[in-house]
Design goal:
Elements (H helix, E strand, L loop, with lengths): L1 H39 L5 H12 L6 H62 L6 E4 L4 E4 L2 E4 L2 H15 L6 H9 L8 H15 L2 H7 E4 L3 E4 L6 E3 L1
Parallel strand pairs: 1-6
Antiparallel strand pairs: 1-2, 2-3, 4-5
């Protein structure tokens, strides 16, 4: 339990550091991009200043057509300034939206990596069983707070594995078949016991629970991957 706690703590700290670093990098890139865009964009008043200079330097332009042309230039400068201001707002909104998407992507990526690491740790350490109670009368097994209804054959198979675990024994497929059927081990087939184990795992339903609860030992047989003191047979 201490190893798992240390792992979870280290994983949480690592994910937090990665998240802070990722968000900081995105904010920095956002600031750099915003500064580059806004600094390279022309000043909205440049056009109006040029029009004012034309008015100031050409006092002789007093004709009606000339005055009208200058008015059009002034109106164009105002429209240009308003358009440029709108572009600034749109660019800023797009930058903020892009930053939000990048932050969300980093958060989901870190959560995904953390979940994968946690699942890998669980698979390596095995499932934590606090109690395993077998009720032969009800053909039910109580695994922690989960109840599984089993067939009679599946219950006898699980009971054989539980009794063997209490004696620190590993049962082969033939031995399981012999215990369940009451026959001699010499007359039982290894494949028959393997079939009973498969049916028991199917009856338990949850693949993670069944695969980690019932461990296959290469060239030896099968055993329950739990502590002896959590087993109760009724």
């Amino acid at each position: 339990m201490r190893v798992r706690s240390i792992f979870a703590t280290d994983l949480g700290r690592g994910a937090t550091r990665a998240l802070v670093a990722g968000i900081s990098a995105i904010l920095l890139l956002l600031l750099v991009a915003a500064a580059a865009v806004f600094l390279r964009m022309p000043d909205p008043n440049v056009f109006n200043e040029r029009v004012e200079r034309i008015f100031a330097e050409n006092d002789a332009l007093t004709g009606q057509a000339e005055v009208r042309l200058l008015e059009i230039l002034a109106q164009s400068g105002t429209a240009f300034a308003e358009t440029l201001a709108t572009y600034r707002v749109l660019i800023f909104v797009l930058l903020v939206f892009s930053a939000a998407l990048l932050v969300s992507a980093i958060i989901f990526l870190i959560l995904f990596v953390a979940l994968n690491r946690r699942m890998s740790e669980i698979e390596r350490a095995g499932i934590e069983i606090r109690s395993l109670m077998l009720s032969r009368d009800a053909n039910a097994v109580y695994l922690n707070n989960m109840e599984f209804s089993l067939t009679g054959a599946a219950m006898e198979t699980l009971a054989a594995l539980a009794e063997a675990r209490l004696d620190d024994e590993i049962l082969s497929g033939a031995e399981i078949e012999a215990i369940v059927t009451g026959k001699s081990v010499d007359t039982c087939d290894e494949a028959a016991g393997a079939t009973r184990i498969k049916r028991l795992r199917d009856a338990l339903g949850n693949q993670i629970v069944s695969q980690l609860l019932i461990r296959t030992v290469a060239r030896k047989g099968y055993m329950l991957a739990i502590e002896k003191d959590v087993i109760r047979i009724m």
